[in-house]
What we know:
Layout lengths: L2 H4 L3 E6 L2 E6 L10 H12 L7 E6 L18 H19 L5 E5 L2 E3 L1 H8 L2 E5 L3 E3 L13 H9 L1 H10 L3 E2 H7 L4 E3 L4 H13 L3 H15 L3 H17 L1 H21 L1
Parallel strand pairs: 2-3, 3-4, 4-6, 5-7, 6-9
Antiparallel strand pairs: 1-2, 7-8
Helix pairs in contact: 2-3, 4-5, 5-6, 9-10
Amino acid sequence: MNQSELTPLYQLEMIGAIARITICRAKKRNALSDDLVNALRTCFDTLPANARVAVLHGEGDHFCAGLDLSEVRENSTTEAVQHSRMWHAAFERVQFGHVPVIAVLHGAVIGGGLELASAAHIRVAEASAFYALPEGQRGLFVGGGGSVRISRLIGVSRMTDLMLTGRVLNAEEGHAAGVTQYLVANGEGMTKAMALAEKIAANAPMTNYGVMHVLPRIADQSIQDGMVTESLMAAVAASDPETRGRLAAFLDMKSNKVRVGQ
Length: 262
């Protein structure tokens, strides 16, 4: 019987429209086993219909210490490629899933843990967070999408430094480098994330969809292609029934204020 059959690998709690997801491998510093990676894929694929935003964090003292090295095997080249693609598929469900995702980072955010965090849309770090990509010292290369996502956050040169030298960034250094959008004191990460989640959950779903799915793709396009894609997304968002209702309510409120002022 494996661990996934003995204890839950994650917990999902709905708080209003917010899906709070907790990685539950504290004894392993929330290291990513294949079972956990697949469980996270299933979790983000099957979020409750009323979920409008997700908050992801790790149980215990660390967010995620990366790949569970006890699972490293002597795979063939083909098997290693397939393993990496399995991680890609799981983390795609985080970045391009049903709802925006906020990651609360504390303690170790290392290797695959940093790759997982980089798939989230907003990252809130507590002062205890630290970041590293030790793959270079272990004869490995990032395989969970880090070369794409992390390099876009901090730049190729910074990622090169981390991988070649084993350098560790503390929370402030990581924040300055672009890993996170928010930096808070220890113990305040979840409070900040939940406050942000409430704001995001109040947005029109089509707007959130555009920010999640279309904005990063526009960034990968040429300027002129991006402009056309932006126009199409703007038209879709503006014609969405919920958006029309929100605009009508705003105009009515503004009109009523003018009448009161008269």
